[in-house]
């Protein structure tokens, strides 16, 4: 039996105007965990969402991201940035070396509110749900910067994603 070594810069890449994802370790490699390197452009907000069965881990490699990983005292449907937990937790501006673990059932989100790109390592379990999700969202994004919310909603339902606030991408000029 052997392991797998992926050199820097290697892996299958999905690139659109709004997204760059590099598949590092996948279900096709025999892994139960999918591992991706994700470029988060300025102005990208994945929107708050929750998974019933999936768990995720995010590690900021470069730049800064606003991160959320708690059930708020009161959910709002338009924006998650001002949410507060019953214990007083708030959204965190996370820099290089910061990480976020999200067990099933916990609302979470990330956003790049800076003028610079951010780079994160992203792991999800079980494999290959997020692999297929990224492939389909790349197809939706490739239609242009504008996103068809109905197409995104249908796709998310197939991959255990219950969207709470909208996905947004307002590119920096």
Keywords, separated by commas or semicolons:
173 residues, alpha+beta, three-stranded antiparallel beta sheet, 13 strands
Task: Tell me what the structure shows.
The structure is a single chain. The protein is of the alpha+beta class and 173 residues long. Strands 1-2-3-11-6-9 form a 6-stranded antiparallel β-sheet, with helices on one face. It has a 3-stranded antiparallel β-sheet with strand order 8-7-10, with no helix packed on it. The protein has a two-stranded antiparallel sheet with strand order 4-13. Helices cover 14% and strands 33% of the residues. The protein contains 2 helices and 13 strands.
Q: Number of helix segments?
A: 2
Distance between the termini: 50 Å
Number of strands: 13
| Gross morphology | globular
Radius of gyration: 16 Å
Give the helices and strands as they follow along the chain. Answer: EEEEEEEEEEEHHEE
Spatially, the strands of the biggest sheet line up as 1-2-3-11-6-9
List low-pLDDT spans.
none
Helix content estimate: 10-25%
Average per-residue pLDDT, rounded, comes to: 90
Q: Return the structural class.
A: alpha+beta
Strand content: 25-35%
Describe the largest sheet: 6 strands, antiparallel
